[in-house]
Design a protein that fits this description.
The protein has about 300 residues and is of the alpha+beta class. It has 13 helices and eleven strands. It has four domains: about 60 residues, Winged helix-like DNA-binding domain superfamily/Winged helix DNA-binding domain (Arc Repressor Mutant, subunit A, Orthogonal Bundle); about 40 residues; about 130 residues, Endonuclease, Chain A, CATH 3.30.870; about 55 residues, Winged helix-like DNA-binding domain superfamily/Winged helix DNA-binding domain (Arc Repressor Mutant, subunit A). The strands form two sheets. Strands 4-10-9-8-5-6-7-11 form an eight-stranded mixed sheet, sandwiched between helices. A three-stranded antiparallel sheet has the order 1-3-2. Strand 2 and strand 3 form a beta hairpin. This is Helix-turn-helix domain-containing protein.
């Protein structure tokens, strides 16, 4: 180890080494022994005197015992090194924690407040490049159908798929909204119940309630990366077991179409009547007419006929 490692300059190191080999020497002799000019040797000697590595006896100088003088410097150096190691360790921990936090923020983002959630929902719709997958359940909270940007997304050739459940279908205006969505080009399916509200954009980012189904959408979380793939898998499972909710291929009356769709989605006669602003008797009478037209005697047969003859 050179004495530079203890904080000495090259000239101070050279002067000290020159003095170690002699009992004592004058300033001129030190310059000669160290092969330095007096202009360089004298300042180095003064530093060694100040640091206690050299002692003066009149005009002559001797080195202090290296084990004593340098030992103290080594101890101080070790202490500084130890403190530096502790500092580095703390910095590493801070960096590691920050790195984990950065990854977590990139994968999961918590969004609070219905306004912020609504904004995030619309941003996902507007940012989609090729697909939007949506699960709709119950009453719209952060985003109403009128606030949706599905049509804007589809204008860019984005494929939009939506699964609705009975809770959504019982909401006021749901049937009319779905009819318009179908007309706009949204692929719609229905199930008895979806696991939770959900929107997935391009299979890369998903928004869903933090506390799952049955709770408020506030707060919500945005999932990205591998976590978004879990949301994609969830949507796919629901989509595959859902029933198509599509436009008819025949000339069936639009009101009868709505009645059939809602019944096939699992709603009761009363719920269908409430959704379409009809009386229960009117719903039942129109169903009887449809059964006669299809030549069937039960609602199960009517449902089979409707599916296989392009009524729904």
């Amino acid at each position: 180890m050179g004495l530079e490692d203890l904080g000495l300059t090259a000239d101070e190191d050279t002067v000290y080494r020159a003095l170690v080999g002699v009992p004592a020497a004058s300033g001129a002799e030190i310059a000669a022994l160290s092969r330095l000019t007096p202009r360089r040797a004298d300042p180095a000697l003064r530093v060694l005197l100040d640091r206690g590595l050299v002692t003066a006896h009149g005009e002559r100088y001797t080195v202090a015992h290296p084990a004593v003088a340098l030992g103290a410097h080594l101890a101080a150096h070790r202490e500084r090194l130890h403190r530096a190691e502790l500092t580095v360790a703390r910095l590493v921990e801070v960096y590691r924690t920050a790195a984990v936090d950065r990854v977590q923020r990139e994968l999961v983002e918590i969004v609070e407040g219905t306004e912020a959630i609504g904004t995030c929902y619309r941003q996902l719709q507007l940012s989609a490049r090729h697909s939007l997958d949506i699960l709709s359940a119950g009453e719209p909270q952060a985003v109403t159908p009128d606030d949706s940007e599905e049509v804007t997304a589809m204008s860019r050739s984005v494929r939009v798929r939506a699964v609705v459940d009975q809770g959504f279908l019982t909401e006021p205006g749901a049937a009319a909204h779905l009819h318009q969505s179908l007309a706009d080009g949204v692929e719609v399916r229905a199930v008895a119940e979806v696991p939770c509200k959900l929107i997935v954009a391009d299979g890369e980012a998903a928004l869903l309630p933090l506390n799952g189904r049955g709770a408020s959408v506030d707060p919500a979380m945005v999932l990205r990366g591998g976590l978004a793939r879990l949301a994609v898998d969830l949507f796919t499972q629901v989509w595959e077991r859902a029933r198509p909710y599509r436009a008819p291929d025949s000339g069936i009356d639009v009101l009868d179409l709505h009645i059939l769709r809602l019944l096939l989605a699992g709603l009761t006669d009363s719920a269908v009547a409430g959704q379409l602003d009809l009386s229960v008797r009117t719903v039942q009478r129109r169903l009887q007419t449809l059964m006669a037209r299809a030549g069937v005697t039960t609602r199960m047969q009517l449902g089979w006929h409707a599916r296989h003859h392009g009524w729904v």
